[in-house]
Write a structure and sequence with these properties.
By secondary structure, the protein is of the alpha+beta class. The chain has nine helices and twelve strands. The strands form two sheets. Strands 1-2-3-4-6-5 form a six-stranded antiparallel sheet. A six-stranded antiparallel sheet has the order 7-8-9-10-12-11.
């Protein structure tokens, strides 16, 4: 049995790595799946760079492309900053604070050829997430683990500190080298649209890495089902009792196997801290029985809700409120997924808020899947689903920000 579990975990890891590479290839060289990325009318601007740092044809070519893209983004109102040496630019998504993100494009000079490139110059496209520097070692460990798993010279993760602040930044990086496909795509799309796709690919690479590392964390415990009767039931309802039993059994199993888990009787459920800490940028899972008296999720008033949450500084609450409004509107009017929603909450006695993706599961569905998988494995899968929807929502909103759109109600 242990051998089968190990093989399943390895297979999942390989599948996720393949998904990363396939997704990035689609971003760069497939047809654009979202024509709305042309919301800004951005054209190439002829602007020859001055004060070149190197006399190298590849470097000069890359420098021209980056400068033209920068001028075009700046002209259309992006929150963009040119690097002091002129070899790159940064686009900020919000303020410089925990949990916020940014994109960076710059010329990378691999003088020691650590990436085993034919030419020492390439373009580095990065997606970065800010975090409290007290968590530096955790993010460093994550980057080292993912780099070891991927073993790809042109795709890697890195960690750095932000000077003059208490922040660090965790990057997902794509190295872009000179090749026929790149030149063809640049001629076809222009510098701006090409860099949009590259930045989206870097962001996708970040989320896929989060999935791989998250699965490594949740797969490290051997969880078995435990029979445990409930007490202090809030409702005399068969569905509620059935769901409460399922959640309680899963809690006892996770607790026995060493998870950082807490039972909360107020919500008839449990909370798992993914990295064991309460700080901006860290994440959490919540599983609880929900009394859906308005039937927002399912036909029966009782259902199980599995939520994946990302903590943020409460000073950024307005940004997250806008994100929740946009995503819920998209789900209800566009995607029409009534069993999924996004929400916010605040942590008592702390300067933190939490951004949640909630996945609801009915009694019939949970019983059917539980018979096949068992309580613990069922909730592992549901937690992965909630995490995937959370990252998917982040993708949707980041694309909206890049396009410069406002919420329809604004």
């Amino acid at each position: 049995m242990e051998t089968i579990i190990v093989l399943l975990i390895v297979s999942l890891m390989l599948w996720l790595i393949f998904k990363i590479l396939k997704g990035i290839t689609s971003f760069l060289f497939g047809s654009s799946s979202n024509e709305a990325t042309s919301y800004h009318d951005v054209g190439a601007i002829d602007n020859e760079p001055s004060d070149l740092n190197y006399k190298n044809e590849v470097y000069i070519s890359f420098r021209n492309k980056i400068q033209k893209a920068y001028e075009s983004y700046k002209k259309t109102g992006y929150n963009i900053e040119l690097h002091s040496d002129g070899d790159g630019f940064t686009i900020a998504n919000g303020s410089l604070s925990d949990g916020n993100s940014m994109y960076m494009v710059y010329i990378y000079y691999d003088e020691q050829n650590l990436s085993e490139l034919n030419d020492p110059f390439c373009i580095n496209v990065s997606y970065g997430i800010y975090f409290d520097r007290r968590n530096y070692n955790d993010y460093k460990e994550q980057a080292e683990y993912l780099n070891k798993e991927l073993k790809k010279n042109l795709l890697f993760y890195s960690v750095d500190l932000v000077e003059g602040s208490n922040l660090g930044i965790y990057y997902s990086n794509l190295l872009i080298i000179t090749n026929g496909n790149l030149c063809e795509k640049m001629k076809e799309l222009g510098e701006v649209e090409l860099f949009k796709r590259l930045m989206s690919a870097a962001r996708e690479f970040y989320y896929q890495g989060q999935e791989i590392y998250g699965d490594k964390e949740t797969s490290s415990h051997d969880v078995g089902a435990i029979d445990n009767e409930l007490s202090d039931l809030k409702y005399d309802n068969e569905v509620y009792i059935s769901l409460s039993n399922i959640v309680r059994k899963a809690y006892e199993s996770y607790k026995k196997s060493g998870y950082n888990i807490t039972w909360n009787s107020n919500i008839d459920g449990f909370i798992i801290l993914e990295d064991g800490s309460l700080s901006a940028g860290s994440s959490t899972y919540i599983v609880h029985v929900n009394n859906d008296h308005r039937n927002l999720y399912t036909d029966d008033p009782f259902c199980i809700v599995v939520a994946y949450g990302i903590l943020f500084e409460r000073s950024n609450n307005d940004d997250y409120e806008e994100k929740v409004e946009y995503l819920n509107n998209y789900l209800y009017t566009g995607a029409k997924r009534p069993g999924i929603s996004y929400s916010l909450s605040t942590l008592e006695d702390d300067n933190l808020g939490a951004f949640y993706c909630n996945v609801a599961i009915s009694n019939d569905d949970s019983c059917k899947r539980m018979k096949e998988l068992g309580e613990a494995e069922l909730f592992k899968q549901l937690m992965r689903e909630a995490r995937a929807f959370c990252y998917g929502g982040q993708d949707l909103y980041s694309d909206k920000v890049l396009r410069g759109e406002k919420n329809s109600s604004n």
